[in-house]
Amino acid sequence: MAMRVLHIINNLGSGGAEKLLVNGLPRYKALGFEMEILQLNGTASVPDYIASLEEMHIPVYDLGLSNVYHPAGIKKIRHFVRNADRNYDIIHVHLFPAMYWAALALRNAGIPLVFTEHNTRNRRWGKFYFRRPDRYIYGRYKKIIAITDEVKIGLEHWIGGNREKIIVIKNGIDIDKFNHIQAIERTTLLRSLNIDSEHTRLLLMTARFDTQKNHKRLLEAMTSMPEHIHLLLAGRGPLEEEARSFCDQLGIKGRVHFLGFRNDVASLMKSVDISILSSHYEGLSGVALESLASGRPFLGSDVSGINNIVPDHRFLFAPENNGVLEEKISGILEDTNLREGMIRDAALFLKAYDIHIMIQNHVHLYHNLK
Length: 370
Known about the structure:
By secondary structure, the chain is of the alpha/beta class. It is about 40% helix and about 15% strand. The longest helix has 15 residues, at about 15-30.
């Protein structure tokens, strides 16, 4: 009989955890698992994500909470699980506040709960009034998956007595699939951006517009770069309008292109000259891994969640040091040997992050918990 796993998450928006879930679940289904998703509120979900899962016969449910932070989520999750027409073997939860509501709703349900911690830090950690409730909530889970060793260390420090529950399973990407994705033809891409010169060099940052991603650092760097260098920003988020206004203030509006949410990010990564991620912190950056797999150079800020998933210092810049990022970009664009060496070493390094390894580890965990 197939093992049934319900994943609970806030929504299937454009974040990294959501994308990983959407890309990974069909693979578990191919191994014989019955996978389903329960969202707290699917209003912000990416329609293409929902459609692709439903096409694979992976049900996606929506509790329709008016506010995902409202504790009404406890009752609704409990009611959903109790009244489902199937018995779940495992319930796997992702992100806050889904982790709170699921733990409280299902504490006596007799179903093993698993939680994946996707960030090296969050806004609760370090706040004394969250320490006790966090320890209780994490304690309701049979196993807690940390996506890097750094995440595990952070969790152990924060929740103390539940350390034996924490295991490390690194996120992965589908390298084979990524290798078969085609780049956008350069002339076509430039035309779509209303750029006339074929000598233009393109930088790309793919990230949600919020404080964590630190778009301002990259926008500031653009002010000291030559006019033929343009920046593409793929993503949505609450700080998008602020970023647009900042471009106006810096006088770089004509060289910064806001692309919105894109479902062809992999093709974009293969079409630009350099992909960049200027985050203040990450859990384990899927964008960084995909950028490394793109066959184009990648630069990321020297922070946890990025600096531990790149081959060496060539791929990093100090986010607080003005001038370093600009120098790194110029060096890559001008030095063919440097550029080709980074691409070659990234491909070798990525073998440890193949999605098949992640899936094998999850499958092993599920079977041990059943």
